[in-house]
Design brief:
By secondary structure, this protein is of the alpha/beta class. The chain has a single domain, classed as Zn peptidases (Aminopeptidase, 3-Layer(aba) Sandwich). Helix content is 32%, strand content 15%. It is built from six helices and seven strands; from the N terminus they run ββαβααββαβαβα. It has a seven-stranded mixed beta sheet with strand order 1-3-2-4-7-5-6. The protein starts with 5 loop residues before the first strand and ends with a helix.
């Protein structure tokens, strides 16, 4: 499996777009930022779920929600719907790829870009940076997204691995061009984190 990566390979900051293919804002914003800024200290993965983006669906090519496929204590075998966590934890190549990146780089902070809830959600010790991101984008900070997320990346990396994880839930009703200014400011904040 080949997933495009941009930025410093041994970076302490990791930014991931498109866990879900029907949330393409992250890919667009990361690629636009990298077109503007050629040299970055952040490791960007613009699009984790290329198949999902190409088909405008939440899941990957196996019908698995990648954000329910991590080997967490709360992973569970679920029904095959848009939140299907796969036949087993870390069954998907995309999940294995991210696990490998995290284990090799040991980032001190991870930001994932999602949509549509207009919140700055976090897992682990990420409250302070979430507050700073909130000041830029004017979304509220929420420790809980409001529903169970068994096998989620945030639980795996943020809670079980103790790496601060921020999930930026972007407004999908706003033209993505209008998100460039605040999201680029967030990336710049992370460049200096």
């Amino acid at each position: 499996m080949k997933i495009e990566k941009y930025g410093k390979i041994d970076s302490q900051i990791l930014v991931i777009g498109c866990f879900h293919g029907d949330e393409p804002q992250g890919k667009f914003l990361i690629e636009e930022y990298l077109n503007k800024k050629k040299d970055t200290s952040i490791l960007f993965i613009p699009c984790l779920n290329k198949y999902g983006v190409e088909h405008n669906i939440r899941t990957n090519h196996n019908g698995v929600d990648l954000n329910r496929n991590f080997p967490t204590k709360n992973w569970e075998l679920s029904k095959k719907d848009n939140f299907y966590g796969g036949p087993s934890p870390a069954s998907e190549s995309e999940t294995k790829f991210i696990i490998d990146i995290v284990e090799k780089n040991q980032p001190k902070l991870i930001l994932t870009l999602h949509a549509p809830y207009k919140v700055v959600n976090y897992d682990g010790n990420a409250r302070d940076i979430s507050e700073k991101i909130s000041q830029i984008i004017k979304y509220p900070v929420e420790e809980s997204i409001g529903y169970p997320t068994p096998g989620s990346f945030g639980t795996w990396a943020g809670i079980e691995k103790n790496i601060p994880v921020v999930t930026l839930e972007l407004d999908e009703e706003v033209d993505v061009e209008l998100l460039k200014e605040p999201v680029f400011k967030i990336f710049e904040l992370l460049e200096n984190y």
